[in-house]
From TrEMBL:
Entry GO terms, CC: plasma membrane
InterPro entries in UniProt: MFS_trans_sf (IPR036259), POT_fam (IPR000109), PTR2_symporter_CS (IPR018456)
Ranges in a coiled coil: none
Topological type in the membrane: Multi-pass membrane protein
Name of a matching Pfam family: PTR2
Family matches, as PANTHER family: OLIGOPEPTIDE TRANSPORTER-RELATED
Transmembrane parts of this sequence: 153-174, 180-199, 242-260, 266-287, 404-424, 445-463, 491-509, 521-543, 549-568
Gene Ontology molecular function: dipeptide transmembrane transporter activity
Span list, region Disordered: 590-618
Primary subcellular site in the record, as a coarse category: membrane
Segments of skewed composition (Basic and acidic residues): 608-618
Protein known as: Peptide transporter-like protein
UniProt similarity note: Belongs to the major facilitator superfamily. Proton-dependent oligopeptide transporter (POT/PTR) (TC 2.A.17) family.
Amino acid sequence: MPVDTENATIVGAAKDEGREIALTKDASAPDYKVSLDGHDDNRAPTEEELHTLRRVPEKIPWNIYTIAFIELCERFSYYGTTAVFTNFIQQPLPPGSRTGSNPGAEDKPGVLGLGQRTSTSLTTFNQFWQYTMPLFGAYIADSYLGRYRTIGWALVIDILGHIILIMSAIPPVITGDKNGPLAALVIGIIVMGFGTGGFKPNVNPLIVEQLNLEKMTVITLPKTGERVIVDPAVTAQRVYHYFYMFINIGALVGQIGMVYCAKFVGFWLAFLLPTIMLCLCPAVLLYGRKRYRRVPPQGSVLGKTFKLFHMANKGRWHLNPVKTYRHMHDGTFWESVKPSKIEASRKPAWMDFNDAWVDEVARGFNACAVFLWYPLFWICYNQINNNLISQAATMRLQGVPNDVLTNLNPFALIIMIPLLDTLVYPTLRKLRINFTPIRRITAGYFAGASAMVWACVIQYYIYQRSECGYYASDEGCATINISVWAQSGSYILIAFSEILASITSLEYAHSKAPANMRSMVQAVALFMNAISSAIGFALVYLASDPYLIWNYGVVAVLAVIGGIAFWLQFRHLDQEEDHLNMLPKGQFGVKPEDNNVPGADPGAVSYPKEEKVESSKA
């Protein structure tokens, strides 16, 4: 390969020793035209190079930032709205107020006055609903509309749901029968769920699909002569870190702004401004219509996946559970259903894929198994949406709304994400310390448990110092002389746990899913939050006085159990990480006579004609 030093540049935006690789992509393939001093570049790394060469990210295209901005606006609308749900439901309409506002220094805004248990139940239902519907949205995208079109329709539905929420908070409604605003709130939550369900599982894979490189490639840095591996996993890690930062910028501004809107103006404004912000999303999405790389849907992918799974299960189940376990873990579960291993006369008509696609499906199922422990992590996070807000209402506010402190969570994320991405993770890579996804996720469980221990201790002192003892949140009880800022540790620890566990789940879902099932695997990861909300329903009895110490303590113990069990079950995947990421892409929709060729065109999925595939023009 000829030397081409002009096409390799160093960009100061990345921080691996102050450098990021900007690589010129060949029109026909993801080629990296770098070859210095006779080095054999532009190839997959050897086994030795995998263990010795430093790994660096690819340059992030401009299109990714426009998608991240869409996510910022959508999360502004979601978190800005849900930030005031607890007070809207729990606190009563202040005397003389027609909007729910209550500007007094130690006073809380409110409308319905249904108490902490009801507010926890409804906010928990909202969490469950918003994270169940992505399964439906992912199926529509992967099978029928594609990610881009599904996102577009989802935004329209989401806007409709926000308009209904505005109606629930206008003065004529909230000053009338209490059932009116409650019914409108619930209907708005349900409609928003359909919108969120179509948006969340599809925007996550869409943003990483804009990257050029999909396999690890060895190159030589032109200025230093250092040989490095451009690793798509490291690039995806960086993209999702900054994607998550955009999410939390939207959440931070939305939550802080809407909390003050509700307190000083009214809930109608706290619902109106997020709706206006959400209306920006379709315009930006339309701008990218001819600029985004869009993978079209491929029909009944999910159906064929479950048919394949059903075929692999045949003959493996036994009345003796020990025999069943051995049959399921004998190493032939997926191998036995590869097209090359099945006689042509026995091959079903729906098996129009090759062996490599079966390997991808197996990897995707393993990823879904990794996510099964996540409900025990998310139950820690969900405390910031209800119980910690209610805890703050019993403390000395000093003019700070009780639901504003939750913004320490996105604020901490915005600070910590760049520090980890530009300082901590590059340093670990230079030291050849492989902080794998499995290790990061495990650490995330323990960070979440630590946050709950902090909340448990705060609650203990609230009960000890309250004039009402273990009924500190009852009406008529004076606020406890503990500053609300004592809660800070819980929010910061939860933020740290999100970086380790939540962001990593996005990376893992994308890197381990078949290319034509990325939305569905992302939806499975999101669905774990819904399961955690269901567990939260089981714990709702503890979400009130005098049981709140038990509430936080039980959640902490569950997170510790989840972290230990997760590590014991999946620690072996550390050694398989590179192998799983380097699997060849499968072919889907191939001719029956060709689908038994194991290595046929391993570099690409056989897709129908793509809707639009263009590199960044912006």
